[in-house]
Amino acid sequence: MHAPPLVAFAGGACPASAASSLSPWLASLRPAIVAAPARLLWFRRGALRLEAKAAWRATGGGRGPRVPAKGAVLASYMGAEEVVGPLSLLDEEELILHIRKERDNGKLPADVAINLEELYYNYRNAVLQNGDPNAYEIMLSNMTALFDRVLLDVQNPFTFPPYHKAVREPFDYYMFGQNYIRPLVDFRNSYVGNISLFHDMEEKLHQGHNVVLMSNHQTEADPAIIALLLEKTNPWISENIVYVAGDRVVTDPLCKPFSMGRNLICVYSKKHMNDFPELIEMKRRSNTRSLKEMALLLR
Fold first, then answer.
1. pTM for this entry
2. Which three-class secondary structure state does DSSP give residue 39?
3. Number of Cβ within a 10 Å radius of residue 77
4. What span, in angstroms and rounded, lies between the C-alpha atoms of 124 and 138?
5. Which of 25, 41, 95, 167 could hold 258 in an S-S bridge, CB 3.0 to 4.6 Å?
């Protein structure tokens, strides 16, 4: 018997601590785990070679270690996915210069380029604190992957259906998100309380029940964090949980690549329903379709 998908509601994932307040099990022909309101916030190792390094140094840029290139799935600028062999090396200055180059060429909106560059420095500073001797290379690889995904989506925007299933091939967006957040988690000092509840959940799901997880989630990284904390004990739950995602995480260019790697029920929140009057009816129709998809999952 094929086990049901897991579902989570809102713009992220529900914290593991929510497991202690689970609703009673609900019998169902088609099991699903539903976690409440959530936002959702591998990969390509650099193929971007730039000139004008003097310009970078003139603005105070420095050179970091290069990241060895390996074969990976890449997205062409036309939106096609292809597997390529070893690529040229990429370093920090080349990545930052390429972001600016794509902005200047009109391929990357100025606000997206600014946010991407700011994210790079924030992510770099956070990852370098984790004590891993390979932290710099890991950070640069992950940011190169994100830049590649953002640029691809800006040029060929992905539209999320009411019920979105994680994109796992030819590019694995799920593992991309996992590996991006992984160096930010202190696994040595992190744990999941009441882990036995997750074992019970998985058993009930395979028996055909539904599980609903309620949470007041705060960050777009929550789905990846929950999946990372459960990947050794409950990998099936990590990969199959379905989250309810608000509109920002399926429209923001920096969030979309992470959201594409999660199973989502996409909704427009009441809070922002009237932000653009001309879109109210479209949002209502979309929410109706999302509710129907959710009902099918819980049937």
1. 0.73
2. coil
3. 10
4. 10
5. 41
